Structure formats: C-alpha cells, structure tokens
Please model this.
Amino acid sequence: MILTTCQLSVSIGGRRVCRDLELSIEAGSRWAILGINGVGKTTLLSTLAGLRAPQDGTVLIDNTPLGDLPPRVRAQRLGLMAQEDSFHISDPEVTALEVALLGRLPHLDWWQAESVRDEALAHTALAAVGLTDIANRRAATLSGGERRRLALAALLAQEVPLCLLDEPTSHLDMHQQIALLDLLSGWDGRTLVMTLHDVNLAVRYCTHVLLLFGDGEWCAGAATEMLSAAVLTRLYRHPVGAASGPHGTLYFPA
Model:
C-alpha cells in the first residue's frame, strides 16, 4: 500500500468531511473522490497531501506517518496538482519552461542548478501535455486551459509515485479532458487520487472510488462495485439514470 489512512477524521468550518476514514490505496491504482459541491473533497485531498492537519487519525505514505517525513522527502514521494494554479507566478517574465522545472526542485540540493537531464525532463513533460510550442512564452499570458496543462507538466517533471489531483480536468474542453486523463492513466506504476465532478470520467478511468456523502459518512471500494444509479442518486441528492456506454455504464441526471 502506497497510501493508507487510519481512523482519519477531517472537518472544516464545523462541518465533518469524513469520520474514521480507512483507506488502503495500492500502488498503481487510480482513485476518484466523488461528492456534491461543498462536501469537502478538496479539504480531504489537502489533508492527504499534508497541507492541513486532520482532526484525528493518521495519513501514512509507504507505512510512514506523513508528518514524520521531511518536506523534501515528502515532495519526492507525492505531488499535488491543486484545483486552481499549482504555482504562483510572482515574476511576470517567468516562462512556461521555468514553471515546468519547478517540478524538479525536490530532487535538487540547496542552491543546485538544474542539470541537462532536469531540463530534458521538463521539455518532455511539456511535450506530453501538448505545450512544446509555448516553452518560452511567459506563463502569465497563458489561457486557463494552458495553465492547467502546465501545472500537470510540472507534476510530470516531479517524477513522484503518488499524484494527488484536484479537479484536473477543470478549464479543459472535452478533447483536452480525455487527452489529459488518457495521459494520466498511461503512467505505468504511478498512483492517482483525484477529485472529479464528472462521474462518467471516474467510470472510464478510475479503478476505485471514495464517496463522500456529508456529515462524515463515506464508503470506498472498486468502482465497478460501488457505482450504481441508486448510490449516485443518494450521493448527489438528485435522481440519476443509467445507460450502457462504450467504456462502461453512463450516468446522467434523470
């Protein structure tokens, strides 16, 4: 197991996100976190990344409590793609390539310059997300979709076994959503945990799901066993219908 939680309880603003959450996430699996807006998906993902403390319980990476890992070691084991920009552009002159190179920082010693290999990995990551032609453009001038793909390029360059992604398909059109998730699902050996709004993307790409119902209630397991029209009707608090599709069952508001 690459990531486990033990009796994890998370709250925000007096609202319980999950209570006594027990997860065992195997290396190479792809998880979706699903639930209505405001249920706490982003808060939980931030807790799994170590950016906020849980109310109770423990998050472990490779059987080591997350809090026991030095920041640099943690950044070599897991990466986070935030819901909005995963990077803050304080310098309007910084280029897309320089942003992609931020993913290499956990692998560099203090004041160590990027190597030829680091730059090659950054260029490869930009190519993977279709941004080769804008490597030297100022990042601040990119569109929302381009900045989303640039954030993914930085995560690719980071070369971590565990990737946490908060709404990775936001700001992307249908073609780019599929291209991005095809790329993510093709990462051999990497483990993905991502929040999604579109349950049909979870059906198509994820091996497992974690469902957050509110008031701390949750359930988790294999996507094929957990997802149904009845369960999703309860999860989204709206009638859900189902139909057969080319990549599994399709769900839609009834």
